[in-house]
């Protein structure tokens, strides 16, 4: 696995210590789960979508929770009591839990399932008090 030196980021960015620490800790964590596969898309300036391949999972077997800047997506398959003999089993039907850390002011808007893909739409809503504003210069 590659290692990245984040020292220049710490030196030149003010107030991004948390971001640099997150990148650094993610870089160190080599046991990242790879199931289920997912994409993160940028849909607009402040709109994002997480698309996760969840073939074989029904709506009732999924749980999506957003709490304090963390998004957790869990899939729990019900126990299959049917006796089966597989010649080849390539479709994973195991439980999973994926966690995503959301940036400030990002919230989950909706979640949909389409063609075996779970789509979770997110939007960043910056409060008016935090948006840039023009300051008038007085005499």
TrEMBL record:
Keywords of the record: Stress response
Endpoints of the signal sequence: none
Taxonomic source organism: Neptunomonas concharum
SUPFAM superfamilies: HSP20-like chaperones
Xref: CDD domains: ACD_IbpA-B_like
Family under the similarity heading: Belongs to the small heat shock protein (HSP20) family.
Protein name: Hsp20 family protein
InterPro entries the UniProt entry points to: A-crystallin/Hsp20_dom, ACD_IbpA/B, HSP20-like_chaperone
PROSITE patterns cross-referenced by the UniProt entry: SHSP
Pfam family membership, one: HSP20
Residues covered by the SHSP domain: 29-139
């Amino acid at each position: 696995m590659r290692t990245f030196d984040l020292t220049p980021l710490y030196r030149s960015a003010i107030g991004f210590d948390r971001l640099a620490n997150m990148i650094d800790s993610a870089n160190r964590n080599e046991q990242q789960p790879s199931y289920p596969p997912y994409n993160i898309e940028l849909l607009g300036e402040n709109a994002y979508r997480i698309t996760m391949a969840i073939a074989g999972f029904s709506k009732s077997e999924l749980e999506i929770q957003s709490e304090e800047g963390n998004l957790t997506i869990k899939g729990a398959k019900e126990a299959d009591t049917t006796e089966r003999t597989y010649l080849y089993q390539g479709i994973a039907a195991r439980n999973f839990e994926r966690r995503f850390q959301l940036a400030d002011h990002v919230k989950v808007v909706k979640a949909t399932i389409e063609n075996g893909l779970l789509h979770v739409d997110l939007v960043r809503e910056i409060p008016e008090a935090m948006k840039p504003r023009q300051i008038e210069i007085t005499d």
